[in-house]
Design a protein that fits this description.
The chain has 12 helices and 6 strands. By secondary structure, the chain is mainly alpha-helical. It has 3 domains: about 80 residues, Endolytic murein transglycosylase (Dna Ligase, domain 1, 2-Layer Sandwich), CATH 3.30.1490.480; about 70 residues, no CATH class; about 130 residues, no CATH class. α2 crosses α3, α5 packs antiparallel against α6 and α8 packs across α9. The chain is elongated. It starts with a helix and ends with a helix. The model has no long low-confidence stretch (mean pLDDT about 90).
Length: about 325
Amino acid sequence: MKKVILFLLSFSILTCLFVFVFYLVNSSPISSTSQTKVFVINKGDSLDIIATRLQQNGLIKNGLVFKLNTYFLGLHDKLRAGSFNLDTSMDNQQIARSLITSGSHDMWIQIIEGWRNEEIASYLEENNFFDAKSFLYIAKGSQGYIFPDTYSIPQTKDIDFFIDKTKQNFDQKYSKAVDNATKQIGQTEAIIVASLVEREARTLESKQMVAGILYNRLELGMPLQVDASIQYASDSQNSPQSFWQPVTKANLSIDSPFNTYKNPGLPPAPICNPGYDSIYAALVPTESDYIYYITGNDNKMHFATTLEEHNQNISQYL
């Protein structure tokens, strides 16, 4: 019995010693050589995600040990979103403390789905991020490719850095949508369709349906008759304080290449910056025989295959 007790005691001591050494070793710096790396914590990142990415980026040895350190320091719920300059010669505790004291002064820029570039420019200037005219000049020709998302931008970075980051995000999201594509269409045409869909529909299901209808109209040689394109054309000519003004009968005859009531085919360029669902819908449209659609006063979309059915929907839901 004494031997069993002695064995268990020895085993417990060795286990505790092993755990202690394991903890010390994995809490230590990953390298004695100093190398600075930029590490970004996004809003909403959990401690598990942060620890995993720190390990993947070669800044800590073990994610579990790092999490234990943050708990021991009482910092597990205090890590802040932002960009951080971390060094490979820092130990776990130094890194954890850095993640609550640095990066909080980054600019958090939120681009809303469906904004045209002028709306982005106003937002950037009103929030003291960047000059509106500078953004419009540098982003000229990029409408449709400024991907709507929330971006963490260090205050030391310029507007070129911000625009490049939005375009990199666009490339990643577009590639993801292309992997599922059922519609063979070039990127330019896909983004133009996505921009129309973004302003015309709300849910992914309705966006896919509208995209399919737009393709049906194109195949039949019908004008697209998209109200959002009329809004874009009118707002571009009148520069209102608030964009996307309601369409009037007079607007339908506006002289603009974006007038899809007068001009056949797609507009010459995107009318806004679409989000992922709209891009996905343009590449994965729903096939149907529908030619017409409206959004009723019930906030639902109603579809029709004939003009007669369409007029009935108008009478019933508008």
